[in-house]
Design brief:
Elements: E1 4-8, H1 10-21, E2 28-32, H2 39-45, H3 51-59, H4 64-72, E3 87-92, H5 100-109, E4 114-119, H6 128-144
Helix pairs in contact: 2-3
Length: about 150
């Protein structure tokens, strides 16, 4: 009941998977500019680490259906409905690596308490120090028992 998960970018996506699949109670999840959501669209657009799959499919279009099926097993939007604890997510309005519009399908499926901070004009750094301060303020309140 005192475990928090935090991750940024790919670590944010992995943190969401861990949060979704653990049998243990999680106090709160903090995910900044999370990756691994809406993967078929990420591949189609070639954003972030999914550029390699995009390029592969340009050469091997006959593999598209197989790849899309495989990706569905690694898409956080398919597991977030299992999260029971509150989460705080940040996204950058102008993030070309983990575009905010690709996280929204996952965010919409979260059934627990959730909050998303959209940082205007921010890229892949999201809210940066401002957002870290928000997370630390929450954690200090928890440690102090407020």
């Amino acid at each position: 009941e005192k475990v928090f998960i935090h991750g940024t970018s790919q670590g944010g996506g992995v943190g969401i998977f861990a949060n979704s699949m653990t049998p243990h109670q999680i106090k709160y999840g903090f995910y900044d500019v999370p990756s691994h959501s809406n993967l078929s669209h990420r591949v189609e657009k070639g954003t972030g680490s999914y550029r390699g799959i995009h390029d592969y499919l340009e050469i091997n279009p006959d593999k598209k259906e197989m790849i899309e099926e495989l990706l569905s097993y690694f898409d956080v939007k398919e597991v977030v409905d299992q999260i029971k604890n509150p989460i705080l997510v940040s996204v950058g309005e102008a993030d070309p690596i983990c575009p905010k519009e690709d996280f929204y399908p996952a965010y919409e499926r979260v059934e627990s308490f959730k909050e998303i901070d959209v940082y205007e004009e921010a890229g892949h750094g999201g809210g940066g120090h401002k957002h870290i301060e928000k997370i630390l303020t929450y954690l200090l309140k928890e440690v102090d028992g407020e």
